[in-house]
Amino acid sequence: MKTSPSPPGAQRTDRSTVKIGALVPLTRPGWVEAGRHLLAGLELAVREVNDAGGIVGRPLELVVRDTAADPQRAAAAVDELARLGVAALAGEYHSVVARAAAARADALGLPFLCSSAVLDALTEQPTQWVARLAPAQSHGWQIYADFLLSAGHSRIAVAAQPSVYWASGARILRDYLAPRGGTVIELDMRALAPTALCEELVDHRATALLLLVGHPEPAVSIVKSVRRDQRLAEIMIGAPAGQPEFAEWATLLGDDSAAVPFLRYLPERLSPLGVRVETALCERLAEAPSFVAFEGYDTIAVLADVLRSHGTDRARTAESWARVAVEGTRGQIQFSRTPGISVWQWAWAPIQVVDRDPAEPDRFRILHAG
What we know:
Elements: E1 18-24, H1 32-51, E2 60-66, H2 71-83, E3 88-91, H3 95-108, E4 112-114, E5 130-132, H4 137-150, E6 155-160, H5 164-177, E7 183-188, H6 194-204, E8 208-212, H7 219-228, E9 236-238, H8 247-253, E10 262-264, H9 272-285, H10 291-310, H11 314-319, E11 326-328, E12 331-333, E13 335-337, E14 344-346, E15 352-357, E16 360-369
Helix pairs in contact: 1-9, 1-10, 2-3, 4-5, 6-7
């Protein structure tokens, strides 16, 4: 269930419910469609937990806060939710926002199960308080780099905006591709209009262009410009961060939305649980659920299992990450300490490189699996 925002300064909590704080981007400049899918998964799982008796007879309550892709707003929300007595935090899609939330949760001693953010360094130092379901960026983007090489691309341009997340992605691609004969050409979209970008792509003889930029803009304008430039008819446009996953991409770009490979975190075939949840999410969203909706559902499934087994004490929750073994919609979820990752990590959710089928843009094609 979703609650309305609490009045400023509210600090008391209803002891009859077990509260989980949910951080979700629901307004711009946040990726609203991703936030809507994430929240749908969280809410569906909360409803199912309560239908099955809640947490040892106590209803589970989701206390939702809109981060709007703002790290400071997210950190303030963590403070508020801690005062409200939530047992744990869930959610967040944007990596830079999740990093701010994770740092605050770590400082406060508040368990945080991050649903969707992939930035490797989710916290500056190793922490016991934070766990994550989404694959680390280095793992997923290396799989994407393998796909590029297997498809014959060695001169790869990246159209990038300034961000810790985009800079990390470009570095992962460069470090992985260079020893394997690949070249990464970084193009700063602060200095280039989409038409000028096309000139750079021609001059550099790039065979692939990766969008390391915001959605819908400038991603949509870049795709339109490149698709209309006959000199670039053979170039592959890619979006490892997943912009084409959501229906808005197809709505804004039409036929141009197809054949833009991206990363998603789904198995080739869903388990019976995954199929059942997919059906329920379709009804809730009135459209096919993205992998982000499954991440939301799995987040609550894990937290509910932990709270049933170990109670609502925050320290006991944090101590239990190593003992989690939960059947999620996309496989068995267990957390470990993974080299180079500062949080408890599910290593790994299934990873695919997919695109929208040019013959039927509402249908996805699996191009590569990791």
